[in-house]
Design goal:
The protein is 13% helix and 30% strand. By secondary structure, the protein is an alpha/beta fold. The protein folds into 4 domains: 143 residues, no CATH class; 80 residues, Sandwich (Immunoglobulin-like); 82 residues, Immunoglobulin-like, CATH 2.60.40.2340; 245 residues, no CATH class. The strands form 6 sheets. It has a 25-stranded mixed β-sheet that branches.
């Protein structure tokens, strides 16, 4: 990116370089013969053509002439011998369509040179090689094609009769683009402009004066028109066309008109602009005469080709996808003659047209065409409700039933010890389908229970639901972990940490940073890791260091949960000398095992008071650990039954709620809705409902805090924390 040289630099440089205007003297190398091919430059004065071997000689000859209006024609690429060595009399410099004019000065530490006009000058079919052209107070006229990759700066008049291509800054007081002329540039900064030809500006057009003419401004993707205060007006007789460039992007492009003066003055006669090549356009603001202040109206071309509010009379439900729409209608609907209604995006068209009668026996394709010509096809399918008399999902707590929609049966396997006389299933059926007993109804499953599913067409389908209680072999039919002496009957030796931990640290991160899985069964490695994280951030690992060799054959040593399971083994929760040398990291844990994890991690000594729970006796492997937590008030039995269900699996939500109660994080002192900067905190987990009974606890555990407010800077990444 080259930098614009300011006008103050122009003036100071002009003073410096004025001493380099060379004296007039005719050189001996001149010739007035007809054969001038041997010279690098010629000067034509009327009918007389003279050849010169140097640029300096040609300039001196013009300066010494008694007349003006000569033409200097380049016959090779010219490197001028001094800064701004240009004629002091009005002339034309013709590059013959192939030659380049270059200054050899190096004023700006290696930056490009500069060319200074010393008289009104015409450039014709010429290329300036990376030169800034300073016109100062002299007029410049463009004939033929003139190109430069650098800046053109001046405080006088530029007249473009041919084609001028300036790939950087164009800064002039007054510009006239003739009817056959084209000015193409990146940035243009002018006071006044008369456009009868074409102005093609890639970036912004800055105007602080009058706009006149009947020409065209080519609008590219990032073209903006800036004007300054009420001195900028469009002439009453003007008729300027704003024409979209051939490669204009209708989805991203925009033409922005801005007042950069901040004084809320209106751009007069803005309705003199005519729009061509945009198709229909959408305005934010009022193009015809109410464009105010810094942020003004945009012309935004619509690429919208969407369908919304699709409806068929009598339809029960409409389901949308990216390119498909499904309409559910009553079972007795005649789908051979339906008349949909719907909306399409601004200025789009659709085929078949809105309101056209259609036969939906098979899917029908609707094609929407945006105003920019882009299309999107939607496949619309109409489904009758008569085929929906099925059970989609059946679960009891964390246990999901196996559904057979052929035999119409459901089997749910629950852990040993589950009281099947009072279970509350969650039953999911289709839209406009009912089920009896209703979802959420507590039922006695001592014997199979019949659920009646009624479809929208009135057809009833019976499902036989059976609860299978697992044998006394642990979770999901596996061998209980304590049976192979993995979980010994011992007492904790770690110090008591109740009331001594800082709760300002996050300890649960979700399964994939987006979902929490609150009702999934928590596994041995997950439970151990949640405890390990909080203790590690509190520097309460009790002298633990990771062993060089894994303690169990199913630990690899490099998995995210290795440290936590090794730590629990170090505390004595698990026995590394167990018979089969296996810890079963991914096995769901029971409520009783969770009690032991907490007792050992927090140093809660087992107690043996009279058992307060109706389903817990001294024969249970976790009897003393559960009683220890109950004595501390951290757990309690189910309402009404006072059951603790020691051998039931524990969900992730239940584990976190218990954890928060033990460490004192179950209060409103931890505000997960606001961060330390006062910004609102949005729940990042898509499967956490604010109405869920566990929502507060899960959110409190997911963030770190400073003074009770969320502090994301304290939240370590899980990889650092778990290693």
């Amino acid at each position: 990116m080259r930098f614009k040289k300011t006008m103050s630099m122009v003036l100071s440089l002009a003073m410096i370089f004025s001493i380099f205007v060379f004296p007039a003297s005719a050189e001996a190398t001149a010739t007035n013969t007809e054969n001038t091919d041997e010279y690098i430059v010629t000067v034509t004065d009327g009918t007389k053509t003279t050849g010169y071997s140097t640029w300096e000689n040609a300039v001196n000859a013009i300066n010494a002439s008694a007349t003006s209006g000569q033409t200097i024609t380049l016959r090779s690429n010219i490197i001028m011998g001094a800064v701004g060595m240009m004629p002091t009399k009005e002339c034309t410099i013709d590059g013959a369509g192939q030659y380049t004019l270059t200054s050899d000065n190096d004023l700006y530490n290696g930056d490009a040179g500069a060319i200074y006009l010393h008289a009104n000058t015409t450039f014709k079919n010429l290329t300036l090689s990376e030169e800034t052209l300073y016109c100062q107070d002299y007029n410049l006229t463009i004939d033929g094609t003139v190109k430069t990759d650098y800046n053109i700066l001046g405080s006088s008049i530029l007249t473009v009769n041919g084609n001028l291509y300036c790939n950087n800054l164009f800064d002039f007081n007054n510009v006239i683009i003739g009817s056959g002329g084209t000015l193409a540039t990146s940035v243009i900064d002018i006071k006044s402009i008369k456009i009868d030809g074409i102005l093609n500006c890639a970036d912004f057009i800055s105007i602080n004066g009058r706009i006149s003419g009947s020409g065209t401004i080519i609008v590219n993707n990032y073209t903006s028109l800036w004007y300054y205060n009420d001195t900028t007006i469009i002439d009453d007789n003007a008729s300027i066309t704003l024409k979209a460039a051939d490669n204009y992007s209708y989805t991203e492009g925009k033409f922005n008109i801005q007042n950069r003066s901040f004084d809320k003055q209106q751009l007069a006669n803005i309705d003199k602009f005519k729009l061509v090549g945009f198709g229909n356009y959408k305005l934010i603001g009022n193009l015809s005469g109410n464009i105010y202040s810094y942020s003004l109206g945009y012309i935004i071309l619509s690429g919208g080709n969407g369908i919304s509010e699709f409806a068929i009379k009598g339809a029960e439900f409409v389901q949308y996808g990216d390119t498909n729409i499904t309409v559910f209608v009553p079972h007795n609907t005649d789908v051979t003659a339906l008349t949909p209604t719907f909306k399409i995006d601004y200025n789009a068209t659709v085929s078949p047209a809105i309101g056209t009668v259609q036969n939906f026996t098979n899917p029908v394709t609707y094609t929407v065409t945006a105003e920019n010509g882009t299309t999107r096809s939607y496949v619309v399918t109409v489904k009758k409700m008569s085929d929906t008399s099925i059970i989609n999902a059946f679960s009891i707590g964390a246990y999901t039933g196996k559904i057979n929609n052929t035999n119409h049966t459901v089997v749910v396997t629950v852990p040993y010890g589950t009281d099947v006389t009072a279970l509350t299933p969650t039953v999911t059926v289709g839209f406009m389908v009912t089920v009896s007993p209703k979802s959420g109804t507590t039922m006695n499953f001592t014997n199979p229970v019949t659920y009646k599913v009624t479809g929208q067409d009135g057809i009833i389908q019976d499902y036989i639901v059976t609860i299978a209680v697992a044998a006394n072999t642990g979770i999901n039919g596996t061998t209980p972990s304590f049976a192979n002496d993995l979980i010994p009957d011992n007492d904790p030796t770690s110090p008591n940490l109740i009331g001594k931990l800082c709760n300002d640290y996050a300890y649960i991160y979700g399964k994939d940073y987006k979902t929490m899985g609150p009702e999934d069964a928590i596994t041995r490695c997950e439970a151990s890791t949640l405890i390990y994280r909080l203790l590690k951030q509190n520097n309460q690992l009790n002298g633990y260091s990771k062993p060089s060799t894994p303690s169990f054959k199913d630990l690899k040593g490099d998995e995210w949960f290795d440290n936590s399971l090794e730590f629990m083994t170090y505390l004595g929760v698990y026995n590394k000398n167990c018979a089969d040398d296996t810890i079963f990291a991914y096995r769901p844990i029971t409520r009783g095992e969770a009690a032991k994890l907490f007792a050992f991690a927090m140093g809660i000594s087992p107690t043996d008071p009279a058992c307060a729970f109706t389903d817990l006796d001294t024969s249970n492997h976790y009897y003393k650990y559960i009683n220890a937590l109950a004595a501390g008030g951290y757990i309690q039995g189910d309402a009404g039954t006072n059951k603790v269900r020691p051998d039931d699996a524990l969900t992730r939500a239940e584990f976190v709620v218990m954890y928060n109660a033990i460490v004192g994080r179950d209060t409103g002192d931890y505000d997960y809705t606001t961060d330390v900067n006062g910004n609102a905190v949005i729940c990042p987990f898509t499967d956490l409902s604010p109405t869920a009974w566990y929502y507060d606890d899960m959110m409190r555990a997911a963030f770190s805090y400073t003074n009770g407010k969320v502090d994301l800077t304290k939240r370590l990444d899980r990889e650092t924390l778990d290693n």
